[in-house]
Write a structure and sequence with these properties.
With 473 residues, the chain is α+β, with helices and mostly antiparallel strands. The protein contains 17 helices and 23 strands. The N terminus and C terminus are likely disordered.
């Protein structure tokens, strides 16, 4: 089955090595820590004294790399990428290495453009030729074109960001520099770390922890950070006071041990569970969480309600996230393989089950059936995010309203469909309480329909038609 949609959620890592580190191995370990952000492909590009070489392929990090491959990737700088996308094409794996008039660029990208199809069509009308379906190739083309008219690659990056609409973080490696950047609203996270004298960039701070690096700060929305032999410097021409970090990073995407823009992901999820318990209390005997991202919220719910927390579901750690399987059929068939009920914990009890979100509703009915079959007398479902009602255009796999169960059914209809004794979601007004120390804004358009970037009128229809066309191939 072919799926042509361009939305993706990925993980980035980059290192400029001023010490005696093995860049390839360092990047490998960091990508392993970021594996939750993408399981379709992985890649590493290294800069060997101005020559950029790379290896990438479909699959998980340990499937793509081994000691022989890593042994060939020698250099003083590297960028790495793990990718989630509906496309399984090997050519869409990143980093994307481009050779052009001024030399060579390697680019790794996380996010989505506001109108990738339109942007690609405009460039093709001017003679551009594309070999992949990735937004990254669009960005590389724009960088190459801009670089011809600028003095430096960082100036080209800054100029492209100024005009390119979308939500993304970006790493660009040239023969002499490593550049990190975020879109002007900062939809996707990116942080700076340091290990001895080497500078590091990563999508999440957990990747810094994995290699023993020190967290320095987040890359600011709109900021372009440059590292070369002279050290680190910043271009802030595109920085403003506005921000629209994706709230779903705290709810689901990021690892709970990460710190994103000053807020602990774990604490945010616990706070969401507490807010649920306050807004929607129910009498029960035990609170359980759906592994993994529902567990923290379940702990918060239990702490606030006083109902004991317990382990009710066991996860097979070798199965990828159900939410990001490429097809509905695969999502449905993978549920029983992925989770199993610990019957001794829930038998004869009234159970509150906490999950992070309901997007397509694939797993809910089966989970509730499994719990009741194992002896639960009641099952109350609590969701630690608001109801998805709108598509996301900035990197989350929620492309059309037609695929959102909340768009098609009311909460009561969903409850009946799932077989739950009660069902409730985090309230929109409680979103701010899960990131209490945050002074910047965040994007909650998938819940509210209020987008910070103008979306082309036909974007959703075009995405839906392309998706259906791909499924018929």
């Amino acid at each position: 089955m072919k799926d042509t949609k361009l939305h993706e959620e990925c993980g980035l890592f980059g290192i400029w090595n001023n010490d005696e580190f093995d860049c390839a191995h360092m990047t490998y370990y960091a990508l392993y820590a970021l594996q939750h952000r993408g399981q379709e492909s992985a890649g590493i590009a290294v800069n060997d004294d101005g020559v950029i070489i790379y290896h990438k392929d479909s699959g998980l990090v340990p499937d793509v790399f081994n000691e022989v491959v890593l042994g060939h990737l020698k250099g003083h700088a590297a960028i790495g990428h793990v990718r989630y996308s509906s496309s399984k094409a090997r050519e869409d794996a990143q980093p994307l290495v481009t050779r052009y008039k001024k030399g060579t660029l390697a680019t790794a990208y996380n996010g989505s453009l506001a109108d990738p199809v339109g942007e690609r069509a405009r460039l093709e009308a001017d003679g551009a030729i594309f070999q992949t379906t990735s937004d990254t190739e669009i960005i590389n083309y724009l960088l190459a074109r801009e670089r011809v008219n600028t003095h430096t690659i960082e100036e080209a990056v800054s100029n492209v960001i100024k005009t390119l609409k979308g939500g993304y973080s970006l790493l660009v490696m040239s023969p002499r520099k490593l550049i990190a950047a975020r879109d002007p609203l900062g939809y996707r996270p990116l942080c700076i770390g340091k290990k001895q004298g080497s500078y590091i960039f990563a999508s999440e701070s957990c990747a810094l922890d994995a290699i023993g690096a020190e967290f320095v700060r987040d890359v600011e929305p709109g900021e372009v950070v440059v590292v070369d032999k002279d050290g680190l410097r910043s271009i802030r021409d595109n920085c403003t006071d506005k921000s629209a970090l994706c709230i779903f990073e705290y709810i689901y995407f990021a690892r709970p041990d990460s710190i994103i823009e000053g807020t602990s992901v774990y604490e945010a999820r616990v706070a969401a569970g507490r807010a649920l318990a306050k807004a929607d209390p129910v009498e029960a005997d035990i609170v359980i969480g759906v592994p993994d991202s529902g567990i923290c919220a379940a702990i918060g719910y239990a702490e606030e309600s006083g109902i004991p927390y317990g382990t009710g579901l066991i996860k097979n750690r070798y199965i990828g996230r159900t939410f990001i399987q490429p097809s509905q059929k695969m999502r449905e068939e993978s549920v029983d393989i992925k989770l199993n009920v610990l019957a001794s914990t829930i038998r004869g009890k009234r159970v509150i089950i906490v999950d992070d979100s309901i997007v397509r509703g694939t797993t809910c009915r089966k989970l509730i059936m499994m719990l009741k079959k194992a002896g639960a007398t009641e099952v109350h479902m609590r969701i630690s995010s608001p109801l998805f009602l709108w598509p996301c255009y900035f990197g989350t796999d929620v492309p059309t309203k037609e695929e959102l169960i909340g768009y098609k059914y009311s909460v009561e209809e969903m409850r009946e469909k799932f077989g739950a004794d009660s069902l409730s979601f985090l309230r929109i007004e409680d979103l701010k309480t899960i990131v209490p120390g945050r002074t910047r804004g965040f994007c909650d358009a998938c819940f509210t329909g209020k987008y910070d970037i103008e979306i082309p009128e036909n974007r959703e229809l075009r995405s839906f038609q392309e998706r259906r066309l791909g499924e018929n191939d």
